[in-house]
Structures are given as structure tokens and as C-alpha cells.
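[step 3/7] fold_predict: job queued, chain A
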Amino acid sequence: MTNFDNESSKARETRKWDGLSEIDQAIRDNRLMEYRVKKSWADPWGRKLTILGVALIVAVFAFLAGASFGLW
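[step 4/7] structure written:
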């Protein structure tokens, strides 16, 4: 068997598992994101800034929705 045959069979083996490694990476990233969110929520300043940011976004959307319906 030549070196070319060995390399091509190894390449075929690694290609079989490419999709599973992408799924594994996505699961790993999701867990890291969940950890970061929990850690940020545990921080008092992070919690206050998150609540303030969400409240500001909701207020802007409420204002725009009210303006589009002619409430003000």
C-alpha cells in the first residue's frame, strides 16, 4: 500500500466525524453562554444594567407602537 492510500483513508475517516465535532462545539458554546449569563446575573451591577437596558428597549418600542397607533 502506498502512502497516498494511507492518507486518503485517514482523510475519509476524519470526514465522517466532521458534523459531530460541529455539534459538539455548538453544545460547548451554548454551555459557555449559559455560564456567562448566570455569572453576569449574579453580579449586582450586571443585573442592574441588564434590567435598565431591557426597560429602555421596551420603553422605546412602546413609544413607537403608541405613536404608530396615534396615541400621542
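[step 5/7] annotate
The helical segments are 3-16, 18-42, 44-68.
The chain has three helices and no strands.
exit 0
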